[in-house]
Amino acid sequence: MKILSHLLIAFLLFSSCQNSNNQHSAQTNEFEHGAVVAAHPLASDVGVQILKEGGNAIDAAIAVQFALAVVYPNAGNIGGGGFMLYRSHDGNVDALDFREKAPEKSDKDMYLDADGNAITDLSLYGQLAAGVPGTVAGMVAAHEKYGSMDWKALVAPAIKLAKEGFQITSMQAAEFNKHQELFSKLNVDGAAIIRSEAWKEGDVFQQPELASTLERVANEGRDGFYKGETADHIVKEMQRGNGIMSKADLENYQAVWRKPVEGMYRGHRVISMPPPSSGGAALIALLQSVELYPLTDWGFQSDSAVRVIVEAERRVYADRATHMGDPDFHRVPMKELMDNDRNKARMKAINFAKATPSSEVLASKFAGYESEETTHYCIVDKEGNAVSLTTTLNGAYGAGVWVKGAGFLLNNEMDDFSVKPGVPNLYGLVGGKANAIAPNKRMLSSMTPTIVEKEGKLFMVVGTPGGSTIITSVFQTITNVIDYGMNAQESVSASRFHHQWLPDQIDVEDAAIKADTRKSLEQAGYKFHERGNIGRVENIIVLPNGKLQTGADPRGDDVARGY
Ligand code: GLY
Questions:
Q1: Is the same domain home to 135 and 213?
Q2: pLDDT (tens digit per residue) in 340-360
Q3: What domain of life (predicted)?
């Protein structure tokens, strides 16, 4: 009887949190053989087409990456970079770093004026904001190691979309219109996206220059981007503005295979991205920090759950700011950052009656954050191979510069470095020496492509855009599934909140955290900052019957497709 009444209470608590806190629709889809969840319906279609033609998850991921460069120019890219996490059907895991890097002529003070003040516009807009792009090298490396289909067949759908054009969605029309002034200012010689009349839903967007660049990539592989005509266009674009990227920078760019990071959460193995992304280590530290607390009993976005999560986030982001950077340039204390005992022990000091001010939380000492535009997609193929891939230009439309003659956007990833200690970047993140600019160094990222196993089997494939909020959105999606029993769609639709140490505030989506809970938290010293959407999470859950349950974030045009 007692057990039954506990179950009833748990059920009522869970149903009420589901009804009151999920701001978006939660219709979930299930597919038998393969699934792709991406930020644009046409990109998801391309991925499923490749899977149906017999391609594996890596083949589909390559085709989706190129398709997104055409149909989702705010973040899909060939002029940016990203991270791919892969798990084969038999459990082998691998991580591909195709993050941009600083050009050889870069310098730690390159965004400071004569008085040493940061000029952050320079790291955000125009040619000087761009890091050396990694996407094409990354896709070639992925294909060489794990691809099964002909390379040209994987680039072909993107070429067709660029050449023939595609009908834009209403969300895209609004986005394109919003950025016209900036595009006209930064692209004096024009670009396909710039036009005098307003864009509207259903207009066809054609990109002939991009189609030619993609044809070179299809025919010549990495040389089609890093050498020859495309490289010439990039270097000329640098000269048109104040850019410093050289032909040597392009030729020398290499994608790097890295060992994924992993940790356990309530019996699940969580596998994620190592540095130069802070995402994996920070995600694992967050999960370790909250694991001793009864989140399920407390309930979704309950007073106690929010306190514990925010206090964990505050501490983990303080460590991120101090200790994390490109591991090829700076020793990142990974073991210490993901030390289960340390992360649990320091949570013992939290005071449930009172917020800990961020000024009192210092990074641990060890011996020896737009538009937050990035995009994520998840793929599982018929054999159970899985890809979780986050790719970015950094801010929406990156540096705002289309490479004249080559038709693609340059990233503004240089802003992900700490341009000066303590000066916040686009996402309000601060950093120091570990993430200072140096030639050929990769800028610290928050991208967190993640795969979760349960009982040794593939369980979840998850990730999101959102700058500094990426880590906390992936964290909340995992707890939504594991602690709150949500399905894939509910887990991404549910409202979200975020804390990143500095600024000392809880960013909340409109529907996040009920009014009475907020009031009680405010009385304890927590400050709230209302903002728009946080992230656009995609999620695939493998059900016990082997079906693929999908969650596509309703905050955007995101769509799950499968067969
Ligand atoms: N550009 C966003 C990130 O890498 O975290």
A1: yes
A2: 999 999 999 899 899 999 998
A3: Bacteria
